[in-house]
Task: structure prediction
Amino acid sequence: MKKIMLVFVVLTMASLCFGTVRRVPSQYSTIQAAMDICAEGDTILVAKGTYNENVVYDVNRVQLISESGADSTEIHGTGGVTISTTVSGLDVSTLLYGFKVTGGTGGYDGEGGGLRMWKQNITVRKCIFTGNTANEGGGFYLERSDAVIESCLIYGNVAEHRQSTGGTGGGVYTFSDFGPYYPIVRYNTIINNDAQGNGNFINGGGAIAFQKTAGTAIGNYIANNEAKYGNGGIAVMSMAGVYDIIITNNIIENNDSVAIDVRYAGATNMHINDNEITGHQYGLRYTYYTNGVIDATNNWWGAESGPYHPTLNPSGTGDEVKDTVKSSVHSIDFDPWKHSIAVETVKPLELPYTLSTCWPNPFVHQTSVKLDARYWVLVSAIVFDITGREVRCIMNNSAKSAGSYNISWDGKDRYGKQVSPGMYFYRVKVNNTSKTMKVIMIR
Result:
């Protein structure tokens, strides 16, 4: 929280020097009312609360900032696209910071549930995108855009199969049919999104879909995303030109079938390095290639023996690397993998979070579990008695940004009444993994 407030103060001071600060709701009843009167370089500061509206950026370099952060400031769309724009040429100094964005259902051709950018650029930072649906790009739709999506929580968004080319990019969809653009997706948590395409060659990408454009995915935690085509992680599709695709330093685990799927794409300038890729049938699948070799070296594939490949590494027990089905030529360079680099310790990347046991235990007044998160996480915490009856819900799918937290129970039930001494079970769920601990209360 101190870090959020520091950033907020710095941004506010900068705005006072270079533009007008407009406050919602004390000066303007809605965010859009403030946006409509903004000049270039202005800042809109939004107090905590829920704002049932769709916001349209129509001036460059406007900074839209919540005062209290995404866990307490929500923009709830009323259909269409929750965040969009009417002007071209926005640059990345245009900012959306610290909001929960939800309720979007897609704009033009059903594109973009939470945010839609066409020929514009924007920086989206420390936001939560959830509960948005669209034909393409459930959370984000970026067409001909160099947008930056940074340090966000993107979960529970759906790209529905409304049209023949729909159901692509459950979390993030990037596209260009006029040369490469360079969107950047970095340091985000992207979990539990769904791409419901009908299985043709341009559907999929439960977490992220790159289509006909360059792009970078760096330092993200990507897990438990689904896709009807089976490529629940990252899909790279229909690259007609020689574009830079960089996928590096991500944790990609337990997505539907395929972690990274490359289809109908030339592999020149495609770099997939230093990722942890585990829990899939295919860690990397490359089909229908035209030329080039994917550089997929120095990844951790879930096992010291490296990824399974039927001819190049048949003893590998990690996620499988699959070459093109169009040729017998091997088109992926995956050696060395982590274990074959002598100077490097054999281990996956640092875990996205750590969770302690309950302490103190036994306890008299209060016990706590310490959570250290490197990314945004979703946290639930429930206390049960020895019969399995729920005693108290401490948290229910609460979003927490990177940081340290004490998840505490004060020994009271849901009605605020002190429970009897004895044994209880404290279940803490972080993202899609739960940990249950015995805890004893004494007098």
Observations:
- The helical segments are 2-18, 31-37.
- The longest helix spans residues 2-18.
- Residues 412 and 418 are 4 Å apart (CA to CA).
- The longest strand covers residues 390-400.
